[in-house]
Structure formats: C-alpha cells, structure tokens
Amino acid sequence: xxxxxxxxxxxxxxxxxxxxxxxxxxxxxxxxxxxxxxxxxxxxxxxxxxxxxxxxxxxxxxxxxxxxxxxxxxxxxxxxxxxxxxxxxxxxxxxxxxxxxxxxxxxxxxxxxxxxxxxxxxxxxxxxxxxxxxxxxxxxxxxxxxxxxxxxxxxxxxxxxxxxxxxxxxxxxxxxxxxxxxxxxxxxxxxxxxxxxxxxxxxxxxxxxxxxxxxxxxxxxxxxxxxxxxxxxxxxxxxxxxxxxxxxxxxxxxxxxxxxxxxxxxxxx
Length: 269
Description:
The chain folds into two domains: 29-189, P-loop containing nucleotide triphosphate hydrolases (Rossmann fold), CATH 3.40.50; 193-263, Helicase, Ruva Protein, domain 3 (Orthogonal Bundle). Helix content is 48%, strand content 11%. The chain has helices at residues 3-9, 29-43, 58-68, 86-97, 105-121, 138-141, 144-147, 167-172, 178-181, 195-208, 218-228, 232-248, 256-263, and strands at 47-51, 74-79, 125-130, 159-164, 184-189. The chain is elongated. The two termini are 19 Å apart.
C-alpha cells in the first residue's frame, strides 16, 4: 500500500505486508495447535511433517515454533533451496549447519552427522527444517532417513521437520520412502481460513496497523473470502488492492463492489 493510502486511512503502517514480528502473527486455534505439536516434537526429539496448500500459513506455524523454542536448548537450521541433486542438496544442509562442505556424498553425510552429534553433546538440540520439501528429488528424499538414524537408530540427536504441499504426504507413502515415513511421528495439516476466520484475520491486521474503525463492510469480507478461498497470502493481496481502490475513489469503507473491482486488478483474477 502506498504512503498516500496509508495516510488516507490513518494507519501507522501497511497492514498486509509480510514484515511482521513473530508476536504479531495471526494464529487461530488450529495453527496454534500445530505449533504446540511441533514444540512437543522438538522437546521429545521426534520428526514431523507440515503440509498445506501454498499461502495458507505454513511459515506462520514455523515462525511460531521459532518463537516458542528456547535458543539456549534448541538450535534451528532452515533450508529452502531443496530442488537439487543429492550432493548439492546435502551441501545446502552443510551450509545451514555452518560446517565445511566436502565433495563426496558419503563425506557429506559423515560431516552432517558428526556436526549434529557435536551440537547435541553441548545439550543443544538441533532442529533441521526443510521447506518446500515436495520439491526434493526422490534421489535426495530417499536418503534423508540416513540423517535420522544415529547409533543404530537409538540416539535421536536431531528433529527433522519436512514442510511442503499435500502431495509430499502421498510421496512419503511410496515404498521408496517408507524408511523415512516410519520415522516421522507427527503430521500437521494447515488449512485455509473459513469465512469467520478470514474476517477475524483481516480485522487483526487492520487493528495492528492502527485502524480506528472498520475499513471493510461485512459483505465485503464475505466476498473477500469467496474470492480468495481463505488462503492467507491471497487475502493479503486482495485486501491491499481493495484498500488502494477505495483510497483512489476517496471511500473510507470498502464494500463488496470495491473488492470485486480490486480482484480484477490482481493476478488472482
């Protein structure tokens, strides 16, 4: 949202930007429960799977996890560049762990495992998050169980969290990946918001930005939900576009006609 729009509505900041502190995230009961289960997985040194369609808030759940885990007892390592061959994939993990990258896959495995063991011996539990995990090639995904196997599968020195689209769950059920699947203890599914949650989400974002009164009519929120399917990322895009259209027409309240007009100005249409 442009500065002029921000000034038109009397807001302190842009309400639908991504740069929110962790404590300002919108967490409904389902997402809060997902965070609780991920915290439990880390505390119990278990592995977890986080699934959801694009834009529904999987990263919100991960950020919630980050804010809940003590940096004294846990160390999070995040990898998003996963659509690589086996050697480069494991080099990415080495880089995330901050260790020297060797050339041969067997050496990479040993380097990663020894580093994780060293961290664990310092009484800091490593949590390795692989985002966009549905993009991991089978050749790489099929070897991840090696990282989850220490001391004859008896020493859980890290927590592995795989994050991806729903089809990742189906891939893990293939016989090729059963060794990894049987080591995963938790599945968290993040769903789109329902109509009531969409309205609550929009209002929270506006309140946090300093809105002093409602900026969206109730019927506008209904249309906003219908057009976005409750996908939070799409809600941000359309709500921001609607505010821009309203400000352009000098209207202090967004109605359903404005939402529909704004929809045509976005890639969602």
